[in-house]
Amino acid sequence: MSIPNPGRIEPVLWDDWHPVAELAALRHGRRLDTGLLGRPLTVTLRADGAIDACSGPHALPHLDTRYGFVWACLGAPVRDIVKFAAADEPDRIPVTGGSMAVAASGLRAVENFLDLGHLGYVHQGYLGEEPHTDIKPYTVGPREGGGIRATGCRVYQPRPSPADTSGYEVDYIYEVHRPYIVVLYKANPVDRTRMDLIALLLQPVSEESCVAHSFMSYPPHDVNEKSVRGFQQLIFGQDRPILENQLPKRLPLDAKAEISVRADSSSAHYRRWLSQLGVRFGAIPQAPA
Amino acid sequence: MNRWFAVARGTEVPRRHVGHYLLLGQELAVWRSDSGAINAWENRCPHRGVRLTLGSCEGEELRCRYHAWRFASVSGQCTLIPAHPGQKPASTVRVRVFAAVEHDGFIWVNLAQGESPTAPTRVAHVLDSTRSIFVDAPLYAVRETLLDGYPVDSTASRLAVWSKDAYCLSAGNPDHAALVTFLLQPVTDFQTVIHGALHTTVEETARLARLRRHNAAMGTVRDEAERRAAAATGGGATA
Ligand code: FES
Ligand SMILES: [Fe+2]
Asked: A-chain residues within 8 Å CB-CB of B88?
């Protein structure tokens, strides 16, 4: 039994796993109505603790949990749910950062997450600050295992995490694992030999709307779950009005649709990679040459 | 289309404010530079598409909210990309700008690109203006309704409306000077704003009463235009 795919959504998305609900947000016996890839989706937590989901009359055969979220696949899964190797280190503390609905393509949200140039403005006083606005060259290339990887990103941050109130230059590594899954690694403020992991997991509800879920994993130093969550929601709350005011709402993949500069290198790579994968949902594909 | 439309009263666009307007479905960011220049720009940053109405006016430049690129008044040319402050932005990095002027107390915009538009129609000296009203009907329906008569003032219950051009209609007794001019702004293909300019003065004590009469008359025009538009689209009468 598979879910009908009348929109012929590309297999790279249809046959993949997507986050659809935060486990902590589910209540016994209550339905959570949401959507995935243009289809309606209802997630229910049964009294016995089992979770099921349906899209209209169709029960979802592929449902699982990971990182504090319920994941669903509408088609035939060809691979496992995304996995972040660092999150497996046994002493790490996992924290979910909640879920936020956004009236924009999830691909725009991924691009915003990768974006270095806005940190000093949209997140002024937290993740960046004038006059430290210049973006030094960084490296972007393919990621082993698929996707893209940006390394050597150095950003001056006045308050890089809730545990840290003094500014310094922070090293960032970004990885895009799947079209709608992106993760950031940055040096832990207490133990700078280890990396904090912050993943943004986008649920593509429609082409022009998404739910942004976030998952974090920290080395065991002074992690206050509540303040981490609050910080994450504060930061994403600063991005949301930007995302909802980008025109067009879908991400244009044509390199000429929007002007890019060197600082946008990760965005340019991301768009090119999406084109190569044949991602159309949430995107404006390149016009045929 | 090489045509000028009034999109706002000048007083709606004070210095250091970036206003959001719609003309023929085109979103506009309208702002006044400190030196007084009126700008009507496509409401979209050429970098990552963020609405420029989220940005801020910094005197002679508008600064985008997302990455703080700066764009010069009048030309729309990018002057600074803070991610690369040492590099001069290429001349191709610019916002799409439209011709805009302030005349007779109104901001006029012309969406024509590539040709130098002629000046907008001049309206007789404007001494007061009515409240602008929004009509859920296409411009032609509003225009036809107005051409059929404008019900104002007890002394002349149905004043004739004569056309100066399609989007600028004056009403009054033909033998007298115009009393009121209507500037029609096609917001989209099916929505219109009527701006009213008054050409005579009255005692301050009578001013509010006059504005009230115009508001009522324009309301009548709105209802009739909406009724006609609904009938034309087969939608029938709406409440
Ligand atoms: S979107 Fe306007 S500066 Fe980047
Ligand atoms: Fe951000």
From this structure: none
Give residues with Cβ within 8 angstroms of A21, minimum separation 6. Answer: A32, A34, A43, A69, A70, A99
Fold category of A85-284 in CATH: Naphthalene 1,2-dioxygenase Alpha Subunit; Chain A, domain 1 (3.90.380)
- What share of chain A in percent tops pLDDT 70? 97
With CA atoms as reference, the chain A residue closest to B66 would be A118
Structure-block tokens of residue A276: 């190569």
- Cα–Cα distance, A177 to A145 (Å, whole number): 8
pLDDT averages per 10-residue partition of chain B, 239 residues: 89 92 97 96 98 97 98 97 96 96 91 77 82 95 90 64 77 67 94 92 86 90 96 64
Chain A nearest C-alpha distance from B68 (Å): 7
Residues whose CB falls within 8 Å of the CB of residue A245, separated by 6 or more in sequence, listed in order: B50, B51, B54
Total-model pTM: 0.93
Which of B100, B103, B102 lies closest to B123 in space, CA to CA?
A: B103
Rg over alpha carbons for chain A, rounded to the nearest Å, is 19
A11-73 in CATH: which number? Answer: 2.20.25.680
Instruction: Outline which parts of chain B fall under CATH 3.30.530.20.
Output: 128-232
Is there a contact between A273 and A5 (Cβ–Cβ < 8 Å)? no
CATH 2.102.10.10-classified regions of chain B: 4-110
CATH 3.30.530.20 is right for the domain spanning B128-232: yes
A135 vs B contacts (CB less than 8 Å): 83-84
Class of domain B4-110 as given by CATH: mainly beta
Candidate from B41, B52, B69 with most ligand 1 atoms within 8 A of CB, to mutate = B69
